[in-house]
Design a protein that fits this description.
Layout lengths: L1 H20 L11 E8 L7 E7 L13 E7 L13 E3 L12 E4 L7 E8 L6 H15 L7 E7 L3 E5 L7 E4 H15 L18 H10 L18 H9 L21 H12 L5 E8 L8 H16 L25 H39 L2 E7 L5 H14 L3 E3 L6 H14 L1 E4 L9 E8 L2 E2 L3 E4 L8 H54 L21
Parallel strand pairs: 6-7, 6-10, 10-11, 11-12
Antiparallel strand pairs: 1-2, 2-13, 3-4, 3-14, 5-13, 7-8, 8-9, 14-15, 14-16
Helix pairs in contact: 1-8, 2-4, 2-10, 7-8, 8-9
Length: 549
């Protein structure tokens, strides 16, 4: 009986601590709902609203067939939706209503650019069945992107791995810090322009969606490691010492000797940096996270429990001398085999609050990291959609929900392996059915507005935004041309060749204009000049006859 009680102590500690950190079962998104994902009002004369909707079962709605009305109010609202005309109205056929202007199109048909990074957890405690099902779920989700979308993929365990093709061939997974080292090599070469042969090609971090689909189907990295880097939380020295004493060491520990400039400390930070540096600010930026929400040392609770119990045992009077029994092989810090029941109870009563306090402090660090990441995502216009993998606990589910809700994304639990593909299909449908509304009205520069979108009987939450100062003439086409050139030729050659082409095109247009001008001028002169009078014909000379003939 004594052995049974000792075996139950870690279980009691774990259940008590989890209850103190978070509670409640993983929940699906609140449905039905209409959601304003983003408002792009950089150009007040041509602003747009991105909107999506979910049906009562949590499945994406084809919102272009729902009958859309857009209501607008200056300042912080409130926004009236009754007894007032909307600024835009579209019928269930998706066409603009009579008396209104603007357009309503799904993202796949709209004049927008799309960028997405898929992040996948692959640490040692991801169930094998779930890891085997992830490639199929990712392939289905990738199918929802536009063919011209900028897409990348990150897999994380103790290290952060990204899909990379430095040679321009098929992408493969490699440590994201290798890309940072490559950029450092480029900077070193730039300081020595005479060494042309030392050039470093870093390749592209955004392969085509089709290439990523092939990479996912070919197989993801094997799940391993007990220090997943979702957020990049650093563990304290005590936890690392406890882990190393039990043979647990970080996979990337050996890399610390030569990695001096990390690209990112965690997978989410790496995804945000990829999107900010690799896509225009006007792009529809998204992160799709397949994860259990866990970060840092997965045995941290055990380490904290052992540390607290060891101290409590040394302080408890019930465990001193013969009263505490003896320590034999197979004993634990919470109470060795043969320990008196009073000693075990004293250690338990002392340890629970101390471990709870340690885990609460750690969760506060995690919370602060989440807040910083949410701020970064919102500032960059990035939406995070999360899919909870099978085995996700209450704490992990709460983290994933916070990331999704705070950034305008959707949280989807896949509690069983056979639900992963359906979750991927739902993500794809969200990409495809998101709609772009162009109200066709103008806003006042620099003014704050509050927006509500109604689809049938459903209404979105009020969405506040500030109208921009407008774009310079031609800025949009030039930005698209520059993005195209960089995508085809890279950052080194794309912009210079684009400028050469632009200058040659300008010279050609100027030459054509001069030639046309000369031709038109000559034609005008010819038409406008008075007609010259015709010369009179020379008189005919009379033929003289000689007399006598």
């Amino acid at each position: 009986m004594r052995i049974g009680k000792q075996a139950s102590l870690p279980i009691l500690l774990a259940s008590t601590l989890l209850t103190g950190v978070a509670s409640g079962e993983p929940r699906s998104p609140v449905t039905p709902q209409v959601k304003v994902d983003r408002v792009d009002a950089a150009d007040p004369s041509d602003w747009r609203v991105l909107v999506s909707a979910l049906d009562p079962e949590g499945e994406p709605l084809k919102i272009t067939e729902s009958g859309i009305q857009v209501f607008l109010a200056e300042g912080k609202g409130p926004v009236r939706t009754t007894g007032i005309d909307p600024v835009a109205r579209f019928g269930s056929d998706g066409l603009v209503a009579k008396g209104f202007s603007g357009s309503l199109k799904e993202v796949g048909k709209a004049d927008v650019s799309q960028a997405a990074v898929f992040v996948v957890a692959l640490h040692a405690e991801i169930p094998r069945e779930a890891a085997a099902a992830l490639p199929g779920a990712l392939a289905v989700a990738l199918d929802g992107l536009r063919p011209d979308a900028r897409a990348s993929m990150i897999a994380y365990h103790d290290a952060v791995l990204t899909a990379w093709n430095p040679g321009g061939d098929a992408p493969s997974f490699t440590d994201v810090n290798d890309f940072q080292d490559c950029l450092g090599g480029l900077r070193a070469v730039a300081d020595r322009p005479d060494e042309a042969g030392a050039a470093v090609r870093c390749g592209r971090m955004f392969p085509a969606p089709a290439a990523l689909t092939a990479l996912a189907k070919a197989g993801l990295p094997a799940p391993q490691g007990l220090f997943p880097r979702l957020l990049g939380i650093d563990e304290g020295g005590d936890a690392l010492s406890w882990a190393e004493a039990r043979g647990h060491s970080r996979i990337d520990r050996a890399d610390e000797a030569y990695v001096h400039d990390r690209y990112a400390v965690g997978a989410l930070e790496a995804a945000l940096r990829l999107l900010v540096s690799g896509s225009p600010a006007s792009s529809l930026r998204s992160i799709v996270l397949f994860s259990d929400g866990r970060d840092g040392y997965l045995r941290y609770a055990d380490a904290a429990g052992d540390k607290a119990a060891g101290w409590c045992r040394s302080q408890a009077k019930e465990c001193s001398g013969k009263a505490g029994g003896h320590e034999g092989e197979g004993g634990s810090a919470l109470g060795p085999e043969g320990a008196a029941p009073a000693c075990s109870r004293a250690v338990l009563e002392c340890s629970i609050p101390r471990v709870s306090e340690a885990l609460t402090r750690r969760e506060q660090v995690v919370r602060e990291a989440l807040i910083d990441l949410v701020r970064m995502a919102r500032a960059a216009g990035v939406r995070i959609t999360t899919v909870a993998l099978p085995g996700t606990d209450e704490v992990g589910a709460a983290r994933l929900q916070a990331l999704a809700v705070r950034t305008g994304g959707t949280y989807r639990p896949a509690l069983a392996t056979n639900q992963l593909k359906a979750a991927g299909a739902a993500v794809a449908a969200e990409f495809q059915r998101e709609a772009v509304i162009r109200p066709g009205t103008s806003l006042e520069k620099g003014r704050e507005y509050t927006l509500v979108v109604a689809a049938g009987d459903l209404k979105s939450q009020p969405f506040r935004f500030v109208a921009g100062e407008g774009r310079a003439f031609g800025a949009g086409p030039w930005s698209r041309a520059r993005t195209f050139a960089i995508g085809k030729l890279g950052h080194a050659w794309g912009p210079p060749i684009l400028w050469v082409v632009a200058v040659l095109a300008a010279l050609a247009v100027l030459g054509l204009a001069l030639a046309l001008g000369k031709g038109v001028s000559a034609l005008v002169k010819k038409i406008g000049a008075p007609a010259k009078p015709k010369r009179p014909a020379a008189p005919k000379m009379p033929t003289l006859k000689r007399p006598g003939t």
